[in-house]
Amino acid sequence: METTKNYFFSDMYVMLGRSMRHILRSMDTIITVTIMPIMFMLLFVYVFGGAIQTGTDNYVNYLLPGILLISIASGVSYTAYRLFLDMQRGILERFNSMPIARSAVLWGHVLTSLVSNFISVIVIILVALIMGFRSPAGVLSWLAVAGILTLFTLALTWIAVIAGLSAKTVDGATAFSYPIIFLPFISSAFVPTKSMPGPVRIFAENQPVTSIVGSIRALLSNQTVGNEIWLALAWCTGIMLLAYILAKRAYKKRL
Amino acid sequence: MTKNEIAISVQGLKKSYMNIPVLTGVDFEVKTGSIFALLGANGAGKTTIVKILSTLLKQDSGHATVNGFDVSAKPGNVRESISLTGQFTAVDEILTGRENLIMMASLRHLSHPQKVAEDLLKRFSLTEAADRSAATYSGGMRRRLDIAMSLVGKPQVIFLDEPTTGLDPEGRIEVWKIVKELADNGTTVFLTTQYLEEAEQLADTIAILHEGKIIVNGTLGALKKLFPPAKVEYIEKQPTLEEIFLSIVGKKEEI
């Protein structure tokens, strides 16, 4: 086992190269992942936007963080999909009967998820810029935003790994993402929570998306971030660690 | 017989899934450089044995060694010595044939992956299709690529789990040729099959797995002797292995 440990990084690099080829050769996955959030963005800005009172004059600025989270939530479902196919086609078994670092196989998928979601996020921000998104934020704030989004992607990707490893059908592997895609709608992502009735408002104000969206919004508009960012980081880290542990367990069970 | 002459040794192997016993004490040995065929009906537990021997699954009790290494105590060494070609062709369909082979060579940490891939492509007459995605390959070509991927790094023991299931007769004969060549070069081949003719054609030793145990184990000649000899013989027809199998497992089906 000692010898295989030393190969973790080179093995992971091979795995990453493999799934990056998958992404680059099926750009339709990135387009699918990117188009839905862009449609939401167009819909909310140009159809509902006029009627939504957010207290800001630039609704694109208000809405963008939530749109980015939706794009990541739908993007990670492809990780579950690819992992499920690997398992079903016996590719995982082939890898696991070889003298390689077994965890490199999973990490390859996880890194690929990070890279492909990064591409989607950039595309959506470019579209938002065309639609009038402006940010006075400096490099440090942007780095902080990138950090939060990375943690959020990692947390959701490990959930996707659990789904991909324990699913029995392809549909089952990706179904987990629907509630997550829906979560931003019951948060402050599109409308301020003040307008919501009691119980919905309590849920909206205390679920992870609201603090994540709030932190990103504050960072991008150069406002003071306050405690919200710690709450956001705690949510992301907590979910990530829990999902990571469960994913590792699901992976062991599969062997 | 010295230790080096035995490639695989299995003693008292037991495995249950959810209290349903699949293997109830399996014993056998495979000589180095020979072709060993494990014969059994669907669901008899052939794949379970392959999974235990290729370190994908842990046995409940009993011992198994591959290439002199205990599968539970030294799984890393076992993985260095073997390669597994599973029941389903485990090739990456989005990658090209060449990329699949290079990936395997990189994962086996060989120093010249390109050269290894080139040689195997030539040997398995896949050079022309080398730069096409494996999704465009025919069933036979996929199986050839699959087996070629298993040969990367020249493992001493090769497991082929139902290598010809789903292949047309031509593809089947091709795989048989490859298997014979492997054994001629000193590789130990462990083969599972439900085709009796396949075992008859290829194997030096044949073992029949039935109801969790090896009920017969020997050369084709020895197996034929087990068939109750007729006292009065009017016909010259020798019993086929199929008849032997069916008489042993007590089925009275029309052949």
UniProtKB/TrEMBL annotation, chain A:
<protein>
    <recommendedName>
        <fullName>Transport permease protein</fullName>
    </recommendedName>
</protein>
<keyword id="KW-0812">Transmembrane</keyword>
<dbReference type="InterPro" id="IPR000412">
    <property type="entry name" value="ABC_2_transport"/>
</dbReference>
<dbReference type="GO" id="GO:0140359">
    <property type="term" value="F:ABC-type transporter activity"/>
</dbReference>
<dbReference type="InterPro" id="IPR047817">
    <property type="entry name" value="ABC2_TM_bact-type"/>
</dbReference>
<feature type="domain" description="ABC transmembrane type-2">
    <location>
        <begin position="28"/>
        <end position="254"/>
    </location>
</feature>
<dbReference type="InterPro" id="IPR013525">
    <property type="entry name" value="ABC2_TM"/>
</dbReference>
<dbReference type="InterPro" id="IPR051784">
    <property type="entry name" value="Nod_factor_ABC_transporter"/>
</dbReference>
<comment type="similarity">
    <text>Belongs to the ABC-2 integral membrane protein family.</text>
</comment>
<dbReference type="Pfam" id="PF01061">
    <property type="entry name" value="ABC2_membrane"/>
</dbReference>
<feature type="transmembrane region" description="Helical">
    <location>
        <begin position="105"/>
        <end position="133"/>
    </location>
</feature>
<keyword id="KW-1003">Cell membrane</keyword>
<feature type="transmembrane region" description="Helical">
    <location>
        <begin position="173"/>
        <end position="191"/>
    </location>
</feature>
<feature type="transmembrane region" description="Helical">
    <location>
        <begin position="139"/>
        <end position="161"/>
    </location>
</feature>
<feature type="transmembrane region" description="Helical">
    <location>
        <begin position="62"/>
        <end position="84"/>
    </location>
</feature>
<feature type="transmembrane region" description="Helical">
    <location>
        <begin position="30"/>
        <end position="50"/>
    </location>
</feature>
<feature type="transmembrane region" description="Helical">
    <location>
        <begin position="229"/>
        <end position="247"/>
    </location>
</feature>
<dbReference type="GO" id="GO:0043190">
    <property type="term" value="C:ATP-binding cassette (ABC) transporter complex"/>
</dbReference>
<keyword id="KW-1133">Transmembrane helix</keyword>
<keyword id="KW-0813">Transport</keyword>
<keyword id="KW-0472">Membrane</keyword>
Automatic annotation (TrEMBL), chain B:
<dbReference type="Pfam" id="PF00005">
    <property type="entry name" value="ABC_tran"/>
</dbReference>
<dbReference type="InterPro" id="IPR027417">
    <property type="entry name" value="P-loop_NTPase"/>
</dbReference>
<comment type="similarity">
    <text>Belongs to the ABC transporter superfamily.</text>
</comment>
<dbReference type="InterPro" id="IPR050763">
    <property type="entry name" value="ABC_transporter_ATP-binding"/>
</dbReference>
<dbReference type="InterPro" id="IPR003439">
    <property type="entry name" value="ABC_transporter-like_ATP-bd"/>
</dbReference>
<dbReference type="GO" id="GO:0005524">
    <property type="term" value="F:ATP binding"/>
</dbReference>
<keyword id="KW-0536">Nodulation</keyword>
<keyword id="KW-0067">ATP-binding</keyword>
<feature type="domain" description="ABC transporter">
    <location>
        <begin position="8"/>
        <end position="236"/>
    </location>
</feature>
<dbReference type="GO" id="GO:0016887">
    <property type="term" value="F:ATP hydrolysis activity"/>
</dbReference>
<keyword id="KW-0547">Nucleotide-binding</keyword>
<dbReference type="InterPro" id="IPR017871">
    <property type="entry name" value="ABC_transporter-like_CS"/>
</dbReference>
<keyword id="KW-0813">Transport</keyword>
<protein>
    <submittedName>
        <fullName>ABC-2 type transport system ATP-binding protein</fullName>
    </submittedName>
</protein>
<dbReference type="InterPro" id="IPR003593">
    <property type="entry name" value="AAA+_ATPase"/>
</dbReference>
